[in-house]
Description:
heterodimer; A: 113 residues; mainly beta; six-stranded mixed β-sheet; five-stranded antiparallel β-sheet; globular; B: mainly beta; seven-stranded mixed β-sheet
Amino acid sequence: KQEVTQIPAALSVPEGENLVLNCSFTDSAIYNLQWFRQDPGKGLTSLLLIQSSQREQTSGRLNASLDKSSGRSTLYIAASQPGDSATYLCAVLNNNAGNMLTFGGGTRLMVKP
Amino acid sequence: DAGVIQSPRHEVTEMGQEVTLRCKPISGHDYLFWYRQTMMRGLELLIYFNNNVPIDDSGMPEDRFSAKMPNASFSTLKIQPSEPRDSAVYFCASSPRDRGLRAANEQFFGPGTRLTVL
C-alpha cells in the first residue's frame, strides 16, 4: 500500500527566504505526482504535476523535482512571500491504483513579513 | 469556467438525519472524485466516477454512504443516517481524461462542504 509522508509538518520562515518542502513515497511505481496548495477553509489548488518520466516542473517561483527511484519529491519556493502561507500537499497516482491519488499529510507553511 | 461547484458550503445537522452533498464538475471532464478531509486522517478518496459510472468505491466508509452521478454535470454524496464521526470537509474534484484511460491530468478541486453532525 502506498504511503506518502511530508516533512516537516509545519514550517515558519522570514519573507524572502528560499525554502524546500519534502515529500516521500514508499512505492516507486507511480504514474505521476502532484503538488497542491490549500488555504485555510478553502479547497485545493493544483500547483504542479510531474509525470513519472519527468524529473522536474517549474511554474514561476515554484520548482518541483521528482526522483522516483528514491521515492522523493521536493517543492522549491524561491523568494518566499507572506502570500505563500498555506498548507502544501503532495499526492501520488500509482500505476496499479486506478485513478486514486494518495495524499501526504501536508506541510503548513507560514511566511512572516 | 466557474470551476468545480459544491453545495452547500456548510451543513450542520443532527445525528440520524440524512445529508446530501452536491457537486457540479468542470464541463468536459470525464472523471469525478469525492474526498473527505479530517484532521486525524487527512485527505481520503471515497469514490470516483468515469463517464458517470462508479469505478472504485472502496474508500466509502460504510453502507450509510452512497454516491450517484446521474449525468455528466451533477453528482451527489448522501449520508443516511449521519453520525457525529462523519463531521469533516467533503471535497469534490474533477479531471479531464489523459491520452489513455487514466485520469493522469491534474485534478481540480471544489471549495468543499464543511459538514458538522451534532
